[in-house]
Description:
Layout: H1 18-24, H2 27-30, H3 34-50, H4 56-74, H5 88-100, H6 113-149, E1 154-159, E2 162-168, H7 169-194, E3 196-197, H8 213-220, E4 224-225, H9 229-234, H10 237-263, E5 271-272, H11 291-314, H12 329-352, E6 354-355, H13 357-363, H14 371-380, H15 385-401, H16 411-415, H17 431-437, H18 446-462
Parallel strand pairs: 3-4
Antiparallel strand pairs: 1-2, 5-6
Helix pairs in contact: 3-4, 3-6, 3-8, 4-5, 6-7, 6-12, 6-18, 7-10, 7-18, 10-11, 10-12, 11-12, 14-15
Amino acid sequence: MKNMEKLWGGRFKKTINKEMEEFISSLSFDKKLVKYDLLGSIAHAQMLGKCKIITKEETDKIVEGLKQILKEVQEDKVEIVTGEAEDIHSWVENKLKEKIGAIAGKLHIARSRNDQIALDERMYLKEEVLKIQGLLKDLQKSLIATAQKNLGVIMPGYTHLQHAQPLLFSHHLMAYFYMFERDKGRMKDLYKRVDVLPLGSAALAGTSFPIDREYVATQLGFGGISENSLDAVSDRDFILEFLSASAILMMHLSRLGEEMVLWSSQEFDFIELDDSFCTGSSIMPQKKNPDAAELIRGKTGRVYGNLLNLLTVMKALPLAYNHDMQEDKEPLFDTVSTLESSLFLMSKMIETMQINKEKMEKGSKDDFSTATELADYLVKKGLTFREAHKLVGKIVLYCLENNNHLENLTLSELKAFHKSFDESTLKILTPQAAVKAKDSYGGTSLKRVEESIKSAKETLEKK
């Protein structure tokens, strides 16, 4: 690049150091924003013409040139090569100058790269947040379909990764539906704060030209306009909020991924993942590795890192724009890419995995997971819960010392611990009875899970 090709070269006597030029260049990654830079430039040029800041002839020429470049970009007829310009804004203006000549320089009236990049990022993020909400909805549909298909299948419920109480597999899946519903709500809510037009703030103080920001906001589909020019160009909290919501979402995906890794292991054998989402071993011919689930779990760390990265960049910056803020783009782009691929793959894994119903149900037997039912039974007979808890603990110890299980105890053995036990006690000690008994709202009984699935479907249909 020659010094005169830059947007700021007039003040300088020397050309920029080659290593310095490479160090500050952002074209290698901000070229992802080219569509938004062009659309924003078109709206800006139209506004300049509408406000008679430039002539109609100039407006038409600039807009036509920008539209030609946009068409070439969309049809992959032009390549944005690193080194051609300092950033995507410079590249667009240089490309426009090639097409229409020096008049291209009028495009930058009443704007700065500071408000321009804030605009591009907001336009990009608005589009991606909507896409992410759609991918979340697809994943929720996969969870609902799998839950409905496997209604009635009982599995062990866990706390501390130890058998706790039996529950329906569908209930377990629906827990993730509601996690992802909150994630979707966070995306929907932050969209409102992304949907604010910064263009017109110029470098930091606004502009002396009689611009029409409302017109530009309408042209570009923004719901609001920034109230303070300094704030508009100097903060990236809208990206930080997205990264924060993305970190929480990836945490939820990671937890589900972890369970898929566990469930598909030989020790659990609750599910089998489809071959299309697994790989093998270069040395062990028998292996089928749950790579997609593992990588979703692993890539969660990079999204956490992206959030911390930008928080650190922004933590002590004085107002207004600082070149440090160029470092916001790669964490943003990487998070969007990671999130979207993870959501897509998780949805497809859920859709295609095979459920080992027999192994799940076998896992919930002979594991003392109905002990709480026995304690609740005694409470209903008049004991305090602490008394019942201690007594059932002794019964469990008795079973362990005698290589027995609760559901195999005889009535006489139970009565030896407390006179309140009768024939009805024997009916509550199966996993099926324990699941059926959990009929509180939001519980794991079949009736409540069916209600949950119906409610979840209605939730998706409303949005």
